Amino acid sequence: ELKVEQNPLFLSMQEGKNYTIYCNYSTTSDRLYWYRQDPGKSLESLFVLLSNGAVKQEGRLMASLDTKARLSTLHITAAVHDLSATYFCAVDVTSGTYKYIFGTGTRLKVLA
Amino acid sequence: DSGVTQTPKHLITATGQRVTLRCSPRSGDLSVYWYQQSLDQGLQFLIQYYNGEERAKGNILERFSAQQFPDLHSELNLSSLELGDSALYFCASSVTGLAGGTDTQYFGPGTRLTVL
Fold first, then answer.
1. B97 and chain A in contact, CB less than 8 A
2. CA-to-CA distance for A5 and B46, rounded, in angstroms?
3. B interface mutation test: which of A56, A93, A100, A106 has the most B CBs within 10 A?
4. Phi-psi bin for B12: left (phi > 0), alpha (psi -120 to 50), beta?
5. Nearest 5°: CA angle at A23, between A59 and A48?
6. Pairing of the two strands A61-66 and A71-76
7. CB contact under 8 A, A104 and B42
8. Is B92 in Cβ contact with A30 (below 8 Å)?
9. Does the CB of A82 have a partner CB in chain B at under 8 Å?
10. Residue B59, class by beta-carbon neighbours within 10 Å (0-12 exposed, 13-18 middle, 19+ buried)?
């Protein structure tokens, strides 16, 4: 069964600090997605990672994928208040019965 | 504004009823995806359509059905509603949504369904 776990579930950090959100998944997957959701708002696609060692960066966010460890990280550099949101990872598997499973989300609060 | 529209924004109905949620994708996008977000179940992928045909199916209940029309808008039909169906329903669109692709999905604002 495909399971996706994120940690931490909650993260409160000071502006200017660095931190990493982790996303572990239980079986081989095809793609790893990261999304952002602001409170009361819809989802926003951040990154799609395909291959082992893939790294993508957008502003203060950098996502990486280690398919051997079944682990993706979302690294936040020099956090700012505007990054406060809930971040979700998701994975999908296209072989056999299609599966697309989200993690539980990490609620990030950046304190000024 | 993502360019994806959903109607209605809010829907309140009673158990046992049937509702239809509508999604219009961004201009030029061929794929539409439906998601459900609830406190109990978290985020769940329901179903994807590509150019009118079902492409991938997730945790969609048998009481739910969807279709994508020739003009590419999509409808999600929810029937025999239960209290547990109360949730936010998002749709998203992307250019292709082909397996192995890396299309960015653009999300609509969602429809909040409350079943009383």
1. no
2. 20
3. A100
4. beta
5. 50
6. antiparallel
7. yes
8. no
9. no
10. middle
DSSP state of B41: T
* Token pair in block for residue B106: 């653009």
What's the CA gap between B41 and A104, in Å, rounded? 9
A4: left (phi over 0), alpha (psi -120 to 50) or beta: beta
Find the length of chain B: 116
Q: What phi and psi values does residue B11 have, to the nearest 5 degrees? A: -145, 125
Contact criterion met (CB < 8 Å) for B92 and A43:
yes
Query: CA A63, CA B84: separation in Å to the nearest integer?
Result: 34
Residue A66 CB: number of other CB atoms within 10 A?
Answer: 14
Residue-level length of chain A: 112
Q: What is the pLDDT of residues A24-53, one digit of tens each?
A: 999 888 789 999 999 999 999 999 998 888
Residue B23 sits at the chain A interface (C-beta within 8 Å): no
Residue B33: closest CA among A52, A30, A41, A98: A98
User: Among all residues of chain B, which has the CA nearest to that of A46?
Assistant: B104
Question: What is the per-residue pLDDT across A49-84, written as a single tens digit (0 to 9) for each?
Answer: 988 888 999 999 999 999 999 999 999 999 999 999
